[in-house]
Amino acid sequence: MSPEVVARRNTRLYYAFVLFNDFGLWFGIWIKYLVVERGLELKYILLMDLPFWFAVAALEAPFGALADRVGHSRVLALGAAVYALTILGFGLTTNYWMLFADYMLWAVAQACRSGADQAIVFDSLKAAGREDRFARIAGRGFALTMTGGLAGIVLGGFAAATWGMTFTVQVSAVTPLVAMAAALLMVDPRLTHARRPYLEQVRSGFAYAWSHPPVRATMLLLTGLLMVTFAPVVLVQPFLIVHEVPTGLFGVFQAPVRLVGLAAALVAWRVTARAGRDRVVGAACLSVVAAFAGLALWDSVAAFSLFAVPAAVQGLIRPTLDAYINEHTPSDRRATVLSVVSLAFSVQVGFLEATLGFITDDIGIRAAFAFTAAAFAVLLPPLYFAWRRVYRETAAAGTR
What we know:
Helix content: over 70%
Mean pLDDT: 85
């Protein structure tokens, strides 16, 4: 097949992969399922995220390097298969040991995907001379991720109310198998890479990410923003439980938030092209801190609307900064470097989730929101200004 045909094929299959892999009836109810149906405590559920994210951190770069060597499509397919097994395991969990085993499987699935899905698309476009389309495709891919999540959350709430939470979680294992088939149909593009020994591939990915200021500054800022926009993943359902929202309406509440993220992802490339990356990123840092401060101060079920802010920020920022990292990374190390980004996120978010779990259980949900706002009000400004300085210097150098 010609590079143009491969690029079109892989783009379509990438869309199918992210849609089906992220469609999950279980995701909008899984915390309530574990707390109510299985009798587990939120703080210990989220404490499991600490070893989970450490496992992801340990596996990110090795699986990224493996994808660079044996093919992104094979590693993606492996990850989707393990993810299906993970979800089925959640549906059968009855104690903390089983839950721990499920989290370890989930870590493998997460590490297999990190970086490889975007790397195969970018390399395919580069081989066809169309890498300029990556930011738009990444935005659409993220939008499809949000679409799959949106549909799964809405249908999952109704399914749980009708057939029970346990069955809803168990049946969610089917769609990742469809994603696995899509990954196996992808064709790895033929690019001339300098083949390095496995450990050297991992080392060079770390070295490149840290020694190149545009990649290093973007990686640090992106991981900070990803953490603050990830906080709703563990706080949305406790918020709905505290405000006594019925299970059948969990999806109805979460759907508009997902729609905001979806819309933001679709227009991310256009917004950043008009306003500029630095302005969009700066506004994102300010708005997420303000949103969590509002959630801490506003004790009402209507405050749920503020969750739309981190959703919008994630939709705008992820494709924007991912594209910037791809633009400054050579193809033979792209999956490895993108995995380093995910690794940096993984190391930090495990502590954040465990902390939020104990604060929510022992103090209250509003205290968790206040902690998030305060922590990122301190963290994000220095990361942003350091990134903006490098970004503007790099842009100025490129115009000379």
